[in-house]
Every structure is written in structure tokens, then in C-alpha cells.
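Example record for the data management plan.
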Amino acid sequence: MRSMNFVSAAIGLALAAAIAHAPAIASEASADAAAPVFNPHGFQFPAGVYRCELNRSVHVRQVSADLQSAVLNWNKKDYTLRAVNARTGALRYEDPKSGLVWLVIVGKSMLLDTKLGRQLANECKT
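Corresponding structural encoding:
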């Protein structure tokens, strides 16, 4: 009888523990489902030389296969930019150290300097 009480108590504790962790598991799953998709519009982002307005150019040396990073050459210097989610659905790459931001939207790309608050290159196309 005593062993039955112990087994019943152990099962009860196990069930209580499972129920206590169930909401956490469910909230983690819903958080993953709600996570924004980095490239919702399926934009292409090929490496190469992008010709821009005002006779400027940006050389995209490398884009990772998962689109999570890119190496850009601007003013004879390479910058490694990391992908960040943009609420607009554009592809957005940032280098916090230099302040450079590369945006890819339909039909064009642009390079911004967030430290100085200005566009460096606009209407960039391959």
C-alpha cells in the first residue's frame, strides 16, 4: 500500500511538472511562428558591382548563401554587414561600427551612412 501511495505521488508530481512546462513550450513555439522572415518578398541579392546615381558604385564582394551577411567595398574599404530585419520587408544590412546600411528594395539598392545621416549611394543597380 505504501509503494502504491509513493507511485501515485510520483505520477502526480510528474503530471504537475509537465503541465507547468506546457505553457512555456507553447509560447516558445508561437514565438518562433511569429518571428519575422528575413526575405519575405524573395529579393535577389547577387554579388557584383552596383552602378549608382552620381557616377558612384558599390562593389558587393560576397553574399552568404543564407543572406545573413555581405561584404561591401565602398571608398576602397571593405565592410562586413550583417542582416537585420526590416519592418518594410526590404533586405537591410548594417555595420554598427562604421554606421553603413545597405538596403535592397524592388529594382534598386542604396547605401546609407547612419552616423552622418546621409545617403552615400542611391539608385544602385547591377
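Summary line stored alongside the record: Confidence is low (pLDDT under 50) at residues 1-33.
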